[in-house]
Structures are given as structure tokens and as C-alpha cells.
Amino acid sequence: MQLILSLTTLATCAIAGSVLPRDSNTAVEDLAATRGSPKHWASGFIYGIPDNEDQVAQHWYEDIGFRWGRTGGAQYGAPKRGWNWGRTEYQGRLQSTLSNYRSMRKVGAECIIYPHDIWGTDSLNSSSYWPGDNGNWQPYEAFVKALMEDLASNNALEGLVWDIWNEPDIEVFWKRDTQRWIDLYIRTHKILRADSRFANVPITGPSLAWRPMSSNKWWTSWLQAIADAGTVPDQYSYHLEGDLNAQDNDPQYTNQSLGALLRQHGLPERQVSINEYAAFNEMIPSGYAWWISRLERFDWIGLLGNWQGGTTLHDLFANLLTKSRNPRDYGASDYAAAPGYHVYRYYARNMTGVRVGTTGSEDGRFDAYATLGEDRVRVLAGPKVRSGQWKVQVEGLAAAGYADASGSVDVESWEFQGSNAFAVTGPPAYKGVKTYQYSSGSVIIPVSQTNNYTAHAFEIAVKKG
């Protein structure tokens, strides 16, 4: 498993090759600091997949390098309200989960299951049983074991990730106290690890809605409890769907805050999974580019949140797709690309070769992700949903064949456009070629952002021979 970056490692990455932003509005890409092949860490979303496994053509998944999904049958009514309404209604949500699992596995994506949705927290009422009520854990443990049996008997363990309970710090998903949830987590962890069939199924948690901070009792109580019980998950998961301007709604902040909490409680580092990221107002090209850049920097799993409801929750790839009576370009039934789809398609299909070291702007509002391929340097850049003036500084041009310390370099550019997540949107607009002077192996590309939704791609040809 990839480890989260320590503060020491972060500092090393930030200054590799003397790479530091020249001012607060500059993102830096260092071609001399390579970081291995692209992993498409940010190419995931929650729900968004129809239960009809053939409804969305496979290329829609493949073109965005889809790697992670999350499912559990949420928001279905009778007769699919979940375990709390009996075995028949449990079967409805189980079959939805298994269908989505198969769709994900066809393209090699991992499936993170939502047991709380299969249980049916979204359909409970004031008289419903919650795990551990009156000291009685038997109904919940029976549910966990039944779900384990059904997953195993349906050959649904490979590529499976078990998310013990989602967002217990939001009342609709957990109407009991913090300690009861911690007891649930530890019990479930031990049940899973006692079954050899699930030895290779990663456990993820705590999947809290709020960020890891020393002032958050959900986090601090859980961390101390899992340290004492020896029930550390394989992935630390949480959500980043907060206010657009909140300081802690940022991987750059929470990487440090989580690292400090782990050290405080004597816990090991693990893969980090931001298994819900981006509020709906950030789901435009600029926001997508910013989040991709942040998640790639820390090698974190990322799944877009899904802000739809009802049957739409189970469709449209969490708003990367939309629908049209006159589909263009891709020819798959009535599906068409929404604005964000083209960003993730470019990210997965075009950005080949090796990843390079990056640093976001010091103001935290602009970021970029870059790769060095055999043919081209490619940069995907965007602000966090705002207008303004920024710069992309590409360092280490010698790695792309520009051996002279100074000279000129041609930069091609594209714009990813569209502010309506439900509008059919064409491919990125080609903006032509501009020639820039470079010195000391470094070129500065200005970015003039006249709206809050556009993202940018810049490409520099690699010199041969």
C-alpha cells in the first residue's frame, strides 16, 4: 500500500530541484523530479452506475481510467429498503450492489461497499433498531455475517473494499453516540479479520464527513480506540466536501493534520482514501483540475461525491455524464459527455509517461498536475472555482530535450469549458500555439481566468536527438 507522505517527505518534494513558487499565484512543475507512471488516483466516484450492467457502454468507463467506485443501493424505496426491513428488502439492495460490483470489475476498478446503505439507514424511522440498541448486537452481527456470505458466494471478494460505516458524524446516517459507533467499528473489523476468506479484503475507515483535526472528538476517540484494540484499517478514509474557502477542505491541510494525529496516537501510516471529494459547486472543469492536482500530489485515492438523489443517484457517473437525444462523438445510447468528463478523459488518456514533481500556488487557489511523456510535456491546470491571474512555471526543461539554458519554447493550449453539469459539452477548445522565452531551464506560462469554471491544458513538444 502507498503510504501517506510525512511532513519530511513533503518538504523534500516541495524543494526538489530548488522548485518553489516565485510568488503566491504560481504553480510549479519540475520535469527533473519524476514520480513514476500515472496511477489516475482521482478517477473514481460514488454511485453513478445503473443497475442494468449494459446500460452504459464500457468505453465511458475506460476513457476516464475509472479506478474506484462506491455502492450500496441507497435511496431505493420498497421493496429495496435494506436489511432493517427484512431479508426480501435486503436482497434488493444487495443485488444493486452486486450489479455495480460487476460493472466496476469489468474495467478493473475496485468496489468499495457501503454496508450502512445495505442496512438501510436512509429508510429508518424513529422506532427502528440501530446496532447495539439495548446492548443487543446480535441483529447487526447477523447482518454483517449474512453480507459476508452473500459476497463470498457471489464471487465478489476480488477488488472489494469494506467501508465499515459511512459518515457516522452526520445524524441521518448514525443516530447514536460516538462510542456506540466506535464499538460497531471494532466489532466489525474483528468479524471480518476472523474470516480467512476476507483476509485480502481491505478495510477502510473511519469515512467521517468532517476532517481529521485534534479538536474533532470523532477522530480522536476513534484513533485512540483502534490503537488500543489493534483494529487499524488498511486505508484511512474521510471526506473533503466542505465550504469552498475552508482552510481544512484541502488535502494540503489534512495531510499534515492527519499525520500529526497518527503520530500522537502511535499509529502507522496507511493509504489515504478521500472517498468523497468536491461539493457540487466545485464539479466544473476548474474545480476538477484543482482536485486532481491535489490528490495526485499526495498519491491519495479519490472518489467524487454524488449530489443527486433517487434514480439519478444511480446514473450519470456522479455528473461526469449527461444525456442527449442526439448523442455525438462517442455513440453510446443517449449518454453524452458533461463538462467534467473531458477533463478526466484528458487526464487518463493524454497524460502519459511519468508524473513529475509539482507545487501548487502559495495562495492555495490554483494547482496543476503534469506528466513527461516520450512525445510531450502535458500540464492540466485550474483554480479552485474562481477567476483571477495565475502562472504555471515549468522547470527542468532539459529533461524534455531543451538542453540550452535559455531560448524559446512553443506551448500549445486547450480550454475545458462548461459550467452546467447537465449540459452536453464538446471536447476542449484548442487555443493555438504561443512562443515563450525560457531561461535557466524554466518557462512561465500565464493563465488569465476570466470565469470560475474553465480548466486548462498546456503541452510542450519533447525535443528529440
Question: Overview of this structure, please?
Answer:
This is Glycoside hydrolase family 39 protein. InterPro entries: GH (IPR017853). Keywords: Signal. The protein is α/β, with parallel strands linked by helices. Helix content is 27%, strand content 25%. The protein has ten helices and 19 strands. The chain has a nine-stranded mixed β-sheet with strand order 17-16-19-14-13-12-1-15-18. An eight-stranded parallel β-sheet has the order 2-3-4-5-6-7-8-9, covered by helices on one side. A two-stranded antiparallel sheet has the order 10-11. β13 and β14 (376-383) form a beta hairpin. α5 packs parallel to α6 (178-193) and α6 runs parallel beside α7. It is globular and about 75 Å long. Residues 1-21 and 327-331 have low confidence and may be disordered.
List the helices and strands and how they pair.
Blueprint: H1 7-15, E1 26-34, E2 44-46, H2 58-62, E3 68-71, H3 87-106, E4 110-113, H4 115-119, H5 138-153, E5 160-163, H6 178-193, E6 203-208, H7 217-229, E7 235-240, H8 251-264, E8 271-277, H9 285-298, E9 301-304, E10 321-323, E11 335-337, H10 339-350, E12 354-359, E13 366-372, E14 376-383, E15 388-395, E16 407-416, E17 429-438, E18 443-449, E19 455-461
**Helical segment count:** 10
Please tell me how large the radius of gyration is: 23 Å
Major sheet size, sense and barrel closure = 9 strands, mixed
Low-pLDDT segments, ≥5 res: 1-21, 327-331
The CATH superfamily label of the largest domain reads Glycosidases
- Which structural class fits the helix and strand makeup? alpha/beta
The top-level CATH class of the largest domain is Alpha Beta
Q: Order of strands in the sheet with the most strands? A: 17-16-19-14-13-12-1-15-18
Annotated CATH architecture of the largest domain: Alpha-Beta Barrel
- According to DSSP, the number of beta strands is 19
Note the beta-strand portion: 15-25%
Protein name: Glycoside hydrolase family 39 protein
Keywords: Signal
Signal peptide: 1-16
Organism: Apiospora aurea
